[in-house]
Design a protein that fits this description.
With 154 residues, the protein is an alpha+beta fold. The chain is built from 4 helices and 4 strands; from the N terminus they run ααβαββαβ. β2 and β3 form a beta hairpin. The longest helix is centred in the N-terminal third of the chain and has 14 residues. The chain is globular. 14% of the residues are buried. Pfam families: AsnC_trans_reg. GO terms for molecular function: sequence-specific DNA binding. This is Lrp/AsnC family transcriptional regulator. InterPro entries: Dimeric_a/b-barrel, Tscrpt_reg_AsnC-like, Tscrpt_reg_AsnC/Lrp_C.
């Protein structure tokens, strides 16, 4: 039987914060129990140790099935700020990262300053996020929102 997390509206604030941290942490370290036999756990542990010795191992990256946790909507929002002053860029980035709807924030070159990955329950949540953190933010001068229809198989 497959275990799934409860829908997003059932998660406690602490659980949601932990999930957001897990999603954002691309160097998530999984604990592998010590096993010296030929079990799968022991073989994985040996492989990971070899990768670590070669400095090729950065950690485990969780792949979250957002449908199962009640966050099926993904949008990418390109954001242009009124100024590219270091303090404004840093301040806006901190504001974005304080929001649990944000999976990732990238500072980018070109027409826009940031590319924000949003995960949410529905389009109403996306619109509320845009009103508060994007269009309603005093530092923002322009945006472009792209809603994802799906993700390519990897």
């Amino acid at each position: 039987m497959e275990r799934t997390l409860p829908p997003a509206d059932i998660l406690t604030a602490d659980e949601r914060a932990a999930l957001v941290r897990l999603i954002r942490d691309h160097v998530f370290q999984a604990r592998i129990e010590d096993a010296s036999d030929g079990s799968p756990t022991g073989l994985v542990r040996q492989f990971v140790q070899r990768l670590k010795r070669k400095q090729a191992f950065k950690g485990w990256r969780p792949v979250i099935d957002r449908e199962k946790i009640g966050l099926p909507v993904t949008a990418f929002i390109a954001v242009k700020l009124k100024s590219q002053h270091h303090e404004m860029l840093s301040s806006y980035s901190r504001d974005l990262m304080s929001c649990s709807d944000v999976a990732q924030v990238h500072m980018v070159s070109g027409k826009f300053d940031f590319l924000v990955e949003f995960w949410g329950r529905d389009l109403a949540q996306l619109e509320a996020f845009r009103r508060t953190y994007v269009n309603g933010h005093p530092a923002v001068s322009g945006t472009e929102t792209m809603i994802s229809y799906g993700r390519s198989a990897s």
